Amino acid sequence: GLVKKRTDTIGLIISDVSNVFFSNLAKGVEDECRKKGWNLFLCNTNDKHTRDLSYIQALADKGVDGILFCMSLDSDKKKAMESIKLFEKLKMPFVMIDRFLEEATCSSVVVDHVQGGYAATKYLLDHGHKKIGCITGPRELEDSCDRFAGYKKALDEYEVAFRKELVYEGKYDCESGATGADYLLKQDVTAIFAFNDMSAYGAYNRMNQKGIKIPEEISLIGYDDIFFSELLDVPLTTVHQPVYDMGVEAVRQLAAEVESERGSRKCITFQPVLIERASVADKK
Ligand code: RIB
């Protein structure tokens, strides 16, 4: 049959280039590409599923050897499947990175977010908090669902009843973090678990504006551990994701896919680590 000509170029599709989380991912990817003598095309979708589709197609048209794919936030399961189907139609080797879809039978590099959500919530519970609000990511996104499952698991373990009014659905950005904080403060929470650092910054900023002291009055914990989190006046306690290493690993995984004819599907799961800083205190 026809052997596809290699271009030694791959594509990386990310959802929000303004979030340092994805910059670190891109760095890991690019560094590993350079080691292999590969070039990299970087595409940013601004979390729009239609742009996922058009970039997958555009990269294929440019003849890339494979694609690392972090899907957009507005991908519900149906839309996510559409992207997967497009890869299959194009016979394009790909690896899902960070954001994952259970139903997709493909290689992936992800983090154990049930464990991450559990560790963050347990930490707050260990500090005596019971009314713990959370600012989640979009409801249909698996990584947010998993963090949420971890949150519930910890509550269960401590026999703290789950209350759905303490859950605010955010969008992994500052703005929804701020509106999430407004909402949760009205529910009288003593602690907030933001499902990513960007939304934690929004909550942090809103509490500052309102003169609410972190952590004396409200404890706050984030997720991702991006660069700015330790630079805040009150350095943010957060859950670290080894995102640079994930980028490196994803390139290796894609190389295996590209080089072996039948593909070598593998799901690689990294463990998150709780980073203790100054934004959580004992409940008074
Ligand atoms: O900050 C971006 C978030 O979206 C991260 O937590 C990451 O895991 C992703 O899905």
Q: How are the SSEs placed, and which strands pair?
A:
Elements: E1 9-14, H1 20-36, E2 39-44, H2 49-61, E3 66-69, H3 77-90, E4 94-97, E5 107-111, H4 113-126, E6 132-136, H5 142-157, E7 167-169, H6 174-186, E8 191-194, H7 197-209, E9 219-221, E10 238-240, H8 243-259, E11 267-270, E12 273-275
Parallel strand pairs: 1-2, 1-3, 3-4, 4-5, 5-11, 6-7, 6-8, 8-9
Antiparallel strand pairs: 10-12
Helix pairs in contact: 1-8, 2-3, 4-5, 6-7
The structure holds alpha-D-ribofuranose.
Detailed description of the structure:
With 284 residues, this protein is α/β, with parallel strands linked by helices. The chain folds into 2 domains: 9-111 and 241-271, 3-Layer(aba) Sandwich (Rossmann fold), CATH 3.40.50; 113-240, Response regulator (Rossmann fold, 3-Layer(aba) Sandwich), CATH 3.40.50.2300. It contains 8 helices and 12 strands. The chain has helices spanning 20-36, 49-61, 77-90, 113-126, 142-157, 174-186, 197-209, 243-259; strands at 9-14, 39-44, 66-69, 94-97, 107-111, 132-136, 167-169, 191-194, 219-221, 238-240, 267-270, 273-275. The strands form 3 sheets. Strands 2-1-3-4-5-11 form a 6-stranded parallel β-sheet, sandwiched between helices. Strand 3, helix 3 (77-90) and strand 4 form a beta-alpha-beta unit. The model has no long low-confidence stretch (mean pLDDT 95). It binds alpha-D-ribofuranose (RIB).
Alpha-beta content class: alpha/beta
Mean pLDDT reading = 95
CATH class of the largest domain: Alpha Beta
- Strand proportion: 15-25%
Over the alpha carbons, how many angstroms does the gyration radius reach? 20 Å
The CATH topology of the largest domain is given as: Rossmann fold
What CATH architecture of the largest domain do you see?
3-Layer(aba) Sandwich
**Taking strands numbered 1, 2, ... along the chain, how are they ordered across the largest sheet?**
2-1-3-4-5-11
Provide the domain count.
Answer: 2
Major beta sheet, specifics?
6 strands, parallel
Number of helices: 8
Spans of at least 5 consecutive residues with low confidence: none
Bound molecules: alpha-D-ribofuranose
